[in-house]
TrEMBL record:
Catalyzes the interconversion of beta-pyran and beta-furan forms of D-ribose. Substrate binds at D28, H98, Y120, A121, N122. This is D-ribose pyranase. It is an enzyme of class 5 (isomerase). PANTHER family: D-RIBOSE PYRANASE. The gene is rbsD. NCBIfam families: PRK11797.1 (NF008761). GO terms for biological process: D-ribose catabolic process. Its EC number is 5.4.99.62. Belongs to the RbsD / FucU family. RbsD subfamily. It is found in: Cytoplasm. GO terms for cellular component: cytosol. It holds the Pfam family RbsD_FucU.
Length: 131
C-alpha cells in the first residue's frame, strides 16, 4: 500500500502518465462526458466527494500550468469560484464559455467525475513540467 499521495490507482497512474500541455478535466456529477474519453468516476453520491478536495489531492502530485473553467462559474457559483481561486492562487485561470469547455472534452487525457453538485463546477487542468 502507498504511504501517501494519491491512493486511487487510476488517479495515480493518470498523473504519472500526464505530459506537458495535456489536459485533465475535473468534473461535477452532471457534466456530459463523451464516450470516447476516459472517465475515472470517483463519485459516491450527490456531493461526495466534492471537487475541490479531489483537486487538492491531485495538486500534491501534478504540475499545473494553467486552468480553464466556464465563465458562468463566477456568476452562478461565486462562493465556489472564490474557493477555487484560493486553492490555485498562483495558477493562471482562463475563462471560456461552458459550451467551449464541453467542446474541449474530446482532447482530454481523462475526465475525473466527482460527486460535486455546484453549478458549473468543472475545470480543465493544463499540465505543466517541473523544470
Amino acid at each position: 500500500m502507498k504511504k501517501s499521495g494519491l491512493l486511487n490507482p487510476e488517479l495515480s497512474a493518470l498523473v504519472a502518465q500526464a505530459g506537458h500541455t495535456q489536459r485533465i478535466v475535473l468534473a461535477d456529477a452532471g457534466l456530459p462526458i463523451p464516450p470516447q474519453v476516459r472517465c475515472i468516476d470517483v463519485s459516491v453520491s450527490a456531493g461526495l466527494p466534492q471537487l475541490l478536495p479531489v483537486l487538492q489531492a491531485i495538486l500534491g502530485e501534478l504540475v499545473v500550468e494553467t486552468v480553464s473553467l466556464a465563465q458562468e462559474t463566477r456568476d452562478h457559483s461565486p462562493g465556489w469560484y472564490s474557493e477555487l481561486r484560493g486553492v490555485l492562487p498562483d495558477v493562471p485561470v482562463h475563462e471560456i464559455s461552458h459550451e467551449a469547455l464541453k467542446e474541449e472534452l474530446p482532447q482530454a487525457l481523462a475526465v475525473i467525475r466527482t460527486g460535486e453538485t455546484t453549478p458549473y463546477a468543472n475545470i480543465i487542468l493544463h499540465c505543466g513540467v517541473n523544470f
